[in-house]
Amino acid sequence: MIYNWWSWYVRLAHPKTRLEAITSRPMLLSGVARLTQHAGQSRLLLTLSHAAGDQIKSMITNIRKGLDHVRATAPPLTKSGRWLALVRYIVTKILPARPKTRYPIALDPPSLAAEMG
After folding, report:
1. Per-domain residue ranges for the chain?
2. DSSP code per residue over 53-110
């Protein structure tokens, strides 16, 4: 189950392509976070220690957008309903990012009656 949830998390972060767990985990887990609270607000400050800092920032922004979307649209739902809403959001981001491939149209095989007659 961990691999599957990590795959969904990474697709939320980077919906255009699949990222391998062996490379995405060190990249996305390379930062140090600090939670600060002031005036009723919580803020998570992230310090990145990876060379791909700009890419990680954009991925974290995508994750934030997804979580904000679920938080805004699904507050009355149960926990499982929120997970379903998050997965739906991820799928709506994945589908437009897929390459448009055209598959050849399958032609009917020639009939034996036409060949024999």
Report:
1. 2-96
2. HHHHHHHHHHHHHHHHHHHHH-TTS-HHHHHHHHHHHHHHHHHHHS----PPPPPPPP
What's the CA gap between 55 and 53, in Å, rounded? 6
Token pair listed for 92: 């709506």
| pTM confidence score | 0.66
The total of other beta-carbon atoms located within 10 Å of residue 89's CB is 19
Half-sphere exposure of 22 (CA within 13 A, CB side): 0
**Alpha-carbon span 116 to 108, nearest angstrom:** 17
Tens of pLDDT, residue by residue over 72-107, are: 887 788 888 888 888 888 888 888 766 666 666 665
